[in-house]
Write a structure and sequence with these properties.
By secondary structure, this protein is mainly alpha-helical. The chain contains five helices and two strands. The chain folds into two domains: 31 residues; 92 residues, Winged helix-like DNA-binding domain superfamily/Winged helix DNA-binding domain (Arc Repressor Mutant, subunit A, Orthogonal Bundle), CATH 1.10.10.10. It has a two-stranded antiparallel ribbon. Helix 2 packs parallel to helix 5 and helix 3 packs across helix 4. The chain is globular and about 35 Å long. It starts with a helix and ends in a 7-residue tail after the last helix.
């Protein structure tokens, strides 16, 4: 019986060590308060006309994940598509409403308007 107890203790200790390393180590740097949709919206506001490949590589997402987010944002009229040949470029619709019930009635403009305006004056380095 003692062997079984010791094994459970070792397993629990290993689990705690893994959780601690995730919080304090490499995985902790991947934390974001924003959802993938929010991150894509902020990126497009800062870097309009970015192709999906650029969005994905700069946000650390797969192209497939970004395509899904872009599809959802387009369906909700939060971004506009512009095509140039086979390439797709996106821009924020600042008049699109925020969808969460607690902030109903607000648009993207108060959140992303300043970022979009600043980008028109000066292109951020992250976009290159």
């Amino acid at each position: 019986m003692q062997v079984g107890v010791r094994e459970r203790g070792n397993t629990a200790e290993k689990g705690r060590a893994r959780r601690t390393s995730r919080r304090n180590g490499k995985d902790a740097g991947e934390f974001s308060i924003l959802s993938a949709q929010g991150r894509v919206l902020f990126y497009i506001a800062a870097c309009p006309d970015s192709p999906v490949r650029g969005i994905a590589s700069n946000l650390g997402l797969t192209e497939r994940a970004v395509w899904g987010v872009v599809r959802e944002l387009r369906q909700r009229s939060m971004i506009h598509l512009r095509k140039n040949g086979r390439r797709h470029y996106y821009a924020i619709n600042l008049e699109a409403p925020l969808l969460h019930p607690t902030i109903r009635g607000l648009t993207l403009r108060p959140i992303l308007g300043e970022i979009a305006a600043r980008t028109k004056r000066e292109r951020p380095e992250v976009c290159d």
